[in-house]
Amino acid sequence: MKKTAKTTKEGLRREIREAVRLVREKNPMAPSITNTVTINLVANAQLAVGGSAAMVYLADEGEAMAALGGAMYINMGTLMPFYAETLPRTVKALAEQQKPWVVDPVGIGVGGLRTSLLLGFRTDKPTIIRGNASEIIALAELWELDSGKKSGGVRGVDATDPVEAARTAAVSLARHTGGAVAVSGPIDLVTDGKSIAFAEGGSKFLPMITGAGCSLGGVAAVYACVAAPFVAALTATAIYNFAGETAEKIAKGPASFQTAFLDALYRATPEEVGAQPFTLETAGK
Amino acid sequence: MKKTAKTTKEGLRREIREAVRLVREKNPMAPSITNTVTINLVANAQLAVGGSAAMVYLADEGEAMAALGGAMYINMGTLMPFYAETLPRTVKALAEQQKPWVVDPVGIGVGGLRTSLLLGFRTDKPTIIRGNASEIIALAELWELDSGKKSGGVRGVDATDPVEAARTAAVSLARHTGGAVAVSGPIDLVTDGKSIAFAEGGSKFLPMITGAGCSLGGVAAVYACVAAPFVAALTATAIYNFAGETAEKIAKGPASFQTAFLDALYRATPEEVGAQPFTLETAGK
Amino acid sequence: MKKTAKTTKEGLRREIREAVRLVREKNPMAPSITNTVTINLVANAQLAVGGSAAMVYLADEGEAMAALGGAMYINMGTLMPFYAETLPRTVKALAEQQKPWVVDPVGIGVGGLRTSLLLGFRTDKPTIIRGNASEIIALAELWELDSGKKSGGVRGVDATDPVEAARTAAVSLARHTGGAVAVSGPIDLVTDGKSIAFAEGGSKFLPMITGAGCSLGGVAAVYACVAAPFVAALTATAIYNFAGETAEKIAKGPASFQTAFLDALYRATPEEVGAQPFTLETAGK
Hints:
3 copies of one chain form a homotrimer.
Chain A: H1 9-26, E1 32-33, H2 39-48, H3 59-68, E2 72-75, H4 83-97, E3 101-104, H5 112-120, E4 128-132, H6 133-142, H7 167-177, E5 180-184, E6 188-191, E7 195-199, H8 212-224, H9 229-248, H10 254-267, H11 270-274, E8 278-282
Parallel strand pairs in A: 1-2, 2-3, 3-4, 4-5
Antiparallel strand pairs in A: 5-6, 6-7, 7-8
Helix pairs in contact in A: 1-9, 2-8, 2-10, 3-4, 6-7, 8-9, 9-10
């Protein structure tokens, strides 16, 4: 997971292709603790890109999964009371095992347990943070990092801020964790705190199926089994953008879109994913 | 939410068209506490008609959702122990916030917690009750209202009584709550205790996909964000009947039906939904 | 449920056709306590073959379901803390009611609660055990029966051993419970401890959709409402193999496969399922 001296578009494209290929070859397992709304889609998306899935709720199972998986996905939706024990013990085990993990701070701002757990992750740092712009800004504020603005307020699982508005927050979070941050939106933003990639593509239908964002987080965890955090987040974003475009061409609505989207995740080649358009900027100071 | 002096078919059709249009325009959020079997379909159906979804399990999150949402959906399937606290606190918060909410008494008769919670809803009244005929009759009996007959017994999530058999129970329940009751079946019955609408349409495949009824309840909650309870329940019933008919024409079985059904919910226009056939009767004394 | 004096292929084919036909005719309910990842697919597969579904989590609801259902399905994925009470009380109720039940030991080896519950099932015996080869071998080892080899270790929900490797373990388990064991793989193995059927068919896509195995277990429970354990397990295996072959012909990836697969389960006739190829061997001593 050594970084190249200088991040270049061509270097990133090569690493994206390699991540897609390695996952198809090695079938790495990225276990999840995730919400009950979209848990099936998370698993099926992980399988479609070539990974392996396993979902748990209990503390000692979270610890076992931290040892067994190559990386882990933790989603903050539909919390249950026993998560108060499960999540801290799981992320401690991930730290001990030096395994990467992805957090999706869905619902940030709603309820005491979620706030308490997310505050704990300020110290027990996730490797990749994935969310929409509102969630990323809210997390930077919760962690008292530079968020660039005041949060637009909680609005369930929907984005209310444009991705560009989360640029400062995303860079702050990435610098704090030393990992990567992926912000989903019409234009996606992925950063490691030094470089920022803006990725195009996707589909108008993606926000109309529940779990598009959650499953992207699960897929990022699969790629984090074989690639550095920034590359893993960017590969997940790129394959989602590619599959979204592909699926929209034949979709008649959100449900036929979801079917075509998962099929497209399954059929996407390293070359197709590596060719997805993105621009690269320096994050600045 | 002022009632027109006299409920007429033409007036209702106008209000149905308006409800469909307003939801597409305003994207209102109707959060849910709902079972894990069909939670994904509930969310996707709510999104397909133009609403926004958020699912929670914890008491303080239920209270937060009562404040954030325009209306709420509570489904009694797959209860977990902590619902003993979550549901009463959530419905209290809904009452304080004067927010409408829909209850689906699925599984009524099975287990002590469900019975205890449903008994509590006799006082903390739901705005819309949605169920099949057996469930509606059982709820009227549990609340010691006129059910018109003795219940046909519990049978999981399946209907064992024809909708017409639930007419007395539905009217009793609507008069008790001051809201609306929707009974799903080959012919659907929707009443506010004064008028009864019998709606036609739908598909033989609807009872063959799990969650057809649950998701109708979630969609009724979305419409309850913008319309009076009777109109909201009737609009949800009408769009389900329209989408069911549309989907059956291209379905090869229940799974391709579900895909086509969600696509049809997404594409249905106010005019198409408002034109769905129904008859209107006076409920009588 | 009286056994024929001698198990023959023609006799089994007749019983398979009869099981498929009886379920379509009687619509028997096979309730489940099952994981949140694939719970929707389990229910929809049970409905597609003609059964009825109901899912619960609480102890007294498990007991109620043991009384109401014709057979029950218990899947060990995504355990929650209260399962420590729910599962033992449910299986006691099943024993008292003399109702058949299917267990799927998914995740065996992960976590203390799962191990403790599965150890308890050594005494409170399931009627049908369904798993992949690794799970079947691990369960035989956990129960200190002849497993034929040492387990290949835990690997989430994936098979790491070929089905043939689980032959000894499957026969040991079936002889211990007096019921049947179904091992899923490219070639499926079904045994009652005396005869072993090896069934062909299915699809490369089946392992690429999450819940193919879980839902097979749920469907086996539906058939166990109307047929002896060995026939029920073999019928579920045969209809899955038939539907898998049918669906693969039109699938463009795993998601369109899943849709076509459920449609094919719905449309499969007794003759088509009864005609699925299998070979029959004597289990030996």
